[in-house]
Design brief:
8 helices, about 30% helix, alpha+beta, two-stranded antiparallel ribbon, Aminopeptidase
Length: about 280
């Protein structure tokens, strides 16, 4: 992780005075792409507070010393941020974040973060623009419908801005014993498994079966309701999951791989951002 990294600025099609994604605000909250190293560092600090101090992940010695969650991917990724302007202009204003990576971001690493857990060769080899989503977290005081809606608006704007046609990434269920989340994992397997031609599969050495209960034993409505909000959000966009869960002992989670074709994102987002681009072009 290199300090001093400043994400590449993208020409702004929405007019002067707006960020890369346009003017996406809800009251004092705004969603934007980080344009300074200060904001990126604030996101890494927020991730540490949420993942390690709150959720029990196990930091490396360097992470603990810096009180930040980081890896080599942060140097080149785009960082989607939720800012609370009521908190001022310093790093404390960063209250939510998402790491977004497109093909051009992985030239240094050679592959996506997800490839450490899943065989994603079918995704990597397909045409079109793909994007990996990861490291999503929100400050405990901001975990509400308004903040999540703002994050999704930001992702939709980013997808439109960069003509992304497929999103994917690891989404987490809290805990490291898959048997304790049998209804949720089985529901995902039986109701939302990705088409075979696109389906990522957990690496053999990390594979944990999701097919823990027969389909007829699952209360689908209850299982859906008990999923983490982020996973439910992907599914409501028409998302699929890959084959196999992966236990991540460092993060104290059980991961599933999620895939979302962006043509399934609500048409209202595309119409809105298309109209905004025309009006400000």
């Amino acid at each position: 992780m290199g300090n001093g990294f400043v994400p590449e600025r993208v020409d702004n099609p929405w007019g002067a005075g707006m960020g890369v994604l346009g003017d996406l605000r809800a009251g004092d909250l705004e969603v934007t792409v980080a344009e300074s190293d200060v904001d990126v560092q604030a996101a890494l600090s927020l991730r540490y507070r949420v993942f390690y101090e709150e959720m029990g992940a196990k930091p490396t010695d360097e992470m603990a010393a810096r009180r930040q969650d980081f890896d080599a991917y942060d140097e080149t990724a785009d960082h989607l941020l939720v800012l609370d302007h009521e908190r001022g202009t310093g790093p404390e204003r960063v209250v939510g974040c998402y790491r977004l990576m497109r093909r051009e971001h992985i030239q240094k690493a050679g592959t996506f973060y997800t490839a450490d857990e899943y065989d994603i060769s079918a995704i990597e080899q397909r045409g079109g623009n793909v994007m990996e989503l990861g490291r999503s977290c929100v400050d405990a005081n901001y975990r509400n419908r308004s903040t999540m809606q703002l994050l999704w608006r930001g992702i939709a704007a980013y997808v439109f801005r960069h003509d992304v046609d497929l999103m994917f990434g690891c989404a987490s269920l809290h805990g490291t014993d898959p048997s304790e989340m049998a209804p949720q994992l089985s529901y995902l397997y039986h109701y939302h498994l990705a088409p075979e031609a696109l389906c990522p599969k957990a690496l053999p050495e990390r594979y944990a079966t999701m097919d823990l209960l027969p389909k007829e034993a699952i209360d689908a409505r209850r299982a859906m309701a008990s999923l983490p909000p982020l996973v439910k959000g992907y599914l409501r966009l028409g998302g699929f999951v890959g084959d196999g869960a992966v236990v991540d002992h460092q993060f104290n989670t059980t991961d599933v791989c999620v895939i979302v074709k962006t043509d399934l994102i609500s048409e209202k987002y595309h119409k809105h951002y298309d109209r905004t681009a025309r009006d400000n072009g």
